[in-house]
Specification:
Blueprint: H1 15-23, E1 29-32, E2 35-38, H2 44-60, E3 66-69, E4 75-76, E5 83-84, E6 88-92, E7 97-100, E8 103-106, E9 111-115, H3 121-125, H4 127-133, E10 140-144, E11 151-157, E12 160-166, E13 172-175, E14 180-183, H5 184-187
Parallel strand pairs: 9-10
Antiparallel strand pairs: 1-2, 3-6, 4-5, 6-9, 7-8, 10-11, 11-12, 13-14
Amino acid sequence: MVANPKEITWPYHSLEEYFAIEGAGHVRYEYWDGQIVCMSGGTQWHYTIGSNAHLILGGQLIGRNCRAFTAETPIKTPTLPPYRYPDASVACGKLVFERIESVDALVNPSLIIETLSPSTESRDRGPKRAACQGLPSLMEYLLVAQDAPHVTHYVRQGNEWVRSDYDSLDLSVALPSIECTLNLRELYEGVEFP
């Protein structure tokens, strides 16, 4: 195993090569137009935020027909194949997975949460958000900063996505698609800002 997978630079790779690399170990990668990008190795704050989101939403969803998922559950994105790894997600109703090589990718998320990092922010805000928002089941997409309390919340309303921003630990984000609330103070519990 390579000591630091983020330091690897990859030439163009086919999807078949990506699947071989992705299936060979315990490190998560995403495929971006022939480039293979390591999705592991984030900061402790990145993992704390993702874990907090999963715990908060998972607790609110107990006994309901929805389930919260961690960063280990990929989401199938047909317009940006083969799949993406969000930091947390929620699916409601009958869970639908599709086997893609050796990975079971969730097909019908209702909500996706991405914690922003300097190395992934442009992708999370741009092509990844566009690909995820193209999923018919997706109703909400959240971008969470890790260097300051800030959440960008996109909600599908008909064919449009309405954006709201929250930048205080005293605020809560209402998540209408899953009938939950995400309190920023709880979301950022244990995170130290620079």
